[in-house]
Amino acid sequence: MNPYLHPRDEILRLMERIYRYRMTTTSGGNLSIREPNGDVWITPARVDKGALRREDIVLVRADGSVEGTRKPSSELPLHQAIYAARPDVRGIVHAHPVALVAFSMVRAVPDTRLFHQSWHVCGAGGFAAYELPGSAALGTTTAARFKKGFNCVILENHGIVTAGPDLQEAFRRFETFEFTGKTIIKAHLLGRPVHYLTDAELALAHQREPLPEPTLPATEAALPTSEEKEVRHRLCEFVRRAYRQRLFISTQGSYSARVDPSSFLITPYQIDRGVIQPEDLVLVRDGQVPAGSEPSRAAAAHHAIYQAHPHIGSIINAYPVNATAFSVTGAMVDTRTIPESYVVVRRPAMAPYGLQFDDPKALAAMLSPMQPTVILENDGVLVTGSDVLEVFDRLEVIESTAEAFINSRAVGELSPMSDEVIRELDRVFLGIK
């Protein structure tokens, strides 16, 4: 979090992201920040969320007085009640993202044990019974759930509220909770049982450091070469693009690229993927990292893959919602659907949960030029390629294929390409006789 960013600007930026990615409507949703002195900055009532301006943000003083050109959100009592119940909370997000609204309509809560990262970021979700929007009763009922320790609470027939020690953390929880809900819905559309992680499986991802080797000596972590700078620039462009395309969310997704035969750059741990900068990327050289840096927890797996496959120049661990639905059901993405899917993605493998943490070399051994993609059980997909562009294209194709596969279930029986067509594609595009 930028300590010099004004609350007005922080609220404005995050509301713009929420609205842009259709996680709320023009009239729905509100954000707030509580300052240490008790003052609360909050979005205004009855103002288009798609055209919100800096001066629209309202300040509600601790004594109840209001400053600004607008009236505060009608959900101010909800925010105030949560702040009163949880002294540790400094930021709140309330909105109406479609997947979580669907859960609210059936009185259900997404199980965040679907992914280790969802459980780590959100914890268990809570549920608040229906009360009139904007009422003190809604604030009382919802605050009671937050007082129990929940940080993400579904509002019956209404939407979602998340809270955190700052607004950025509340947003991370909001986005991650919505992603979890979307994945569960997509998984159910596949018609297969959904696998949730056990306590032991949840702990596995955080039992080991991503790269336990010694720290890179200071003399070797000198100013980057022009080649490294170019890779940093290009990799950052594609990380942010992956976020814009909803292939990543702010808390999930790792992207790396080779700099030279012995080193690669990778996304850092717990840095917002939507706003990542070149200087945020972590250099890994011979399995070592500069002092003070913390690479993605996928770094050990990426290191093993680069060591085993000199032809691989870039790797993505991603959680696009449709492909990820396959990872939590054990279903396989059938790429024999359209020529592009088969030629670009080939035939994905399926890796059991935890292989990327327990045995990165075994995961690397599953990859080959003819099998560049692996679906990771309850952990999205791992995609490899010769460079940053190829691996990104491959990720987009597997996600669009997965979405088409899921959508096809609503219109008829899947009709894969014939063996004769596959042999022709192998011969013409892949050089297989």
From TrEMBL:
<dbReference type="GO" id="GO:0016832">
    <property type="term" value="F:aldehyde-lyase activity"/>
</dbReference>
<dbReference type="GO" id="GO:0046872">
    <property type="term" value="F:metal ion binding"/>
</dbReference>
<dbReference type="InterPro" id="IPR036409">
    <property type="entry name" value="Aldolase_II/adducin_N_sf"/>
</dbReference>
<feature type="domain" description="Class II aldolase/adducin N-terminal">
    <location>
        <begin position="233"/>
        <end position="406"/>
    </location>
</feature>
<protein>
    <submittedName>
        <fullName>Class II aldolase/adducin family protein</fullName>
    </submittedName>
</protein>
<keyword id="KW-0456">Lyase</keyword>
<dbReference type="InterPro" id="IPR001303">
    <property type="entry name" value="Aldolase_II/adducin_N"/>
</dbReference>
<dbReference type="Pfam" id="PF00596">
    <property type="entry name" value="Aldolase_II"/>
</dbReference>
<keyword id="KW-0479">Metal-binding</keyword>
<dbReference type="InterPro" id="IPR050197">
    <property type="entry name" value="Aldolase_class_II_sugar_metab"/>
</dbReference>
<dbReference type="GO" id="GO:0019323">
    <property type="term" value="P:pentose catabolic process"/>
</dbReference>
<feature type="domain" description="Class II aldolase/adducin N-terminal">
    <location>
        <begin position="9"/>
        <end position="185"/>
    </location>
</feature>
<dbReference type="GO" id="GO:0005829">
    <property type="term" value="C:cytosol"/>
</dbReference>
